User: Fold this.
Amino acid sequence: MPIAVLTAFAALRLVTESRSEHRTSYDIRGAITSTAGLVSLVYGFTRAESDGWTAAATLTLVGVGLALLAAFVWIERRTESPLLPLRVVLDRNRGGSFLASLLAGIAMFATFLFLTFYYQQTLHYSALRTGFAFLPFSIGIIAGATLASRFLPRTGPRPLMVVGLALGVVGLVLFHGVGVHTVFLTGIMPAELIVSFGMGMAFVPMNSTALIGVDPSDAGVASALMNTTQQTGGSLGVSLLNTLAASATSSYLADHAGRAAAQAAAVVHGYTTAFAVSAGLLGLGAVISLVMLRAGRADLPAELEVMAAA
Assistant:
C-alpha cells in the first residue's frame, strides 16, 4: 500500500493530461457483448469438464458466447465510437500479430498452470522449490528478448516471430515427454530454456508489429489489444486445456484400471496432453506469422535502428 500511495502521488505531480480534441462516447454495447461473450465461452469450456462437450449446457454456453462475440463485431462496425475499431485488426500485419499473441496466450498460461501442478503434485516440490524451478523461464525470456531486440531492425519481425514460436513448439514437445519420475536438470530445465528463449524472441517483434502503420489515434487501442489478446488467451486456454487434460486423465484411468501406478501416470498423461495441444497452438501461430506478416525492416519505427546501433 505505501508503494501504491507514493506512486499515485508521483503521478499527480508528474503525469500531464492529454485530451482528445474530438468528443467521443462510451461504447457500452460493445463492452457488454464482448465481456459477456468471453465469459460465456470460458464458462462453457469449464462446464465441458464435468458435463461433456455434447451436453446441452456446454453447447448452449459456447453457442451464446460465439453469438455475443459476433454481435460485438456487428456493433463495432456500426457504432460511431467503437471500443475496438475494426481497422486496427483488419490490417494484415497487425491481425497476424494479434492472432499469434492470442494463441501464445492460450498455450503459455496453461503451460505455467500444468507445470505448477506437475512440480507440486507429481514431483512433490514445495512452493519455494517450485518457484526456483521456474527461474529458467526468466533467464530464457531475457536472453531471447535481448537477441530479438538486437536483430529486429536487421531482419524485420517475421523471421524472429516464426523462429521464436517454432522454438516454443520444440520446448513443449519436450515437455510432452515428462513422466512421473523425470529429473529436473536433464528432463525439464532444457525444455524450459528452449520455450522461454523462443517466447522472448517472439514477443518483441509481436509487440512491435502490433503498432506498425497504426494511426496515432488508434495507437492506444492497438497497444492495449496486444495485452488483451494474451490475457484473453490465458483465460480461454486455462479453461479449455484444463478440460482436455481432465478428459485425458479419465480416459487413461479407464484404459489402465487395476494398475498400481495408474493414478499418478494418469495425471501426468493429462498434463502432457495439454502440452501437446499447446505445442500445436504455437505451431499454428508460427504458420499464421509466416503467412500473414509482410512488414519488413523499412516498416519498423526509426527508433529501433538507433537501439540496434547502440
Summary: The radius of gyration is 22 Å. The chain has twelve helices and no strands. The first helix runs from residue 2 to 14. Residues 303-310 have pLDDT under 50 and may be disordered.
